[in-house]
Amino acid sequence: MPGFLLHLNAMVNCAHGGVATPMTTIPNVMVMGQPISVMPVPYGIIGCTLPPPIAANGPCVTATWITASTRVSSYGNPVLLQDSQSICAPSGTPLLITATQTCVFGM
User: Is there a contact between 25 and 8 (Cβ–Cβ < 8 Å)?
Assistant: First the structure.
């Protein structure tokens, strides 16, 4: 199913409200004036409210993408889409993509 491409300033959060951003982007490929994100580049997370052990297994620190585009790539890496799936470490919860650009989509 097609989804909009993720870019640097897309609104991506962990399940506990932390803000997630890509650790690197592809600066030569832009959508809406922002560089795109690709897999396997992890996302860094700041501001996660999940308590540390013993109360829980947080806070979320990084997220790894487990799905991405199957037809669109940049520099040999699949681009991330609005419906891409991820897993946060150490909590094991997914990232939530709440807003992205709405001009360019891929599959």
Answer: yes
Per CATH, the architecture of 3-106 is what?
Answer: Sandwich (2.60)
Could you tell me the maximum CA-CA distance found in the chain, to the nearest angstrom?
45
Q: Give the N- to C-terminal CA distance of the chain in Å, as an integer.
A: 6
- The position carrying tokens 């297994």 is 57
CB contact at 8 A, 100 and 23? no
**Cβ 81 vs Cβ 106: under 8 Å:** yes
For 7-24, the pLDDT digits (tens) are 999 999 999 999 999 999
pTM, 2 dp: 0.92
3-state SS, one letter per residue, for 36-97: ECECCCCEEEECCCCCCCCCCCCCCCEEEECCCCCCCEECCEEECECCCCEEEECCCCCEEE
